[in-house]
Amino acid sequence: MNDIKVAVLGSEAVGKSALIVRFLTKRFIGEYASASECIYRKRLSIDGRQQNLELYDPCSQPSEGKSTLSEQIHWADGFVVVYDISDRSSFLTAKAILHLIRELNFGATKRDADAVVFLVGNKQDLCHVREVSREEGQQLAGETHCQFYELSAAEHCQEVALMFSKMVRNASQHSKAK
Ligand code: GDP
Ligand code: MG
Question: Could you tell me which SUPFAM superfamilies the record lists for this protein (predicted)?
Answer without folding.
Answer: P-loop containing nucleoside triphosphate hydrolases
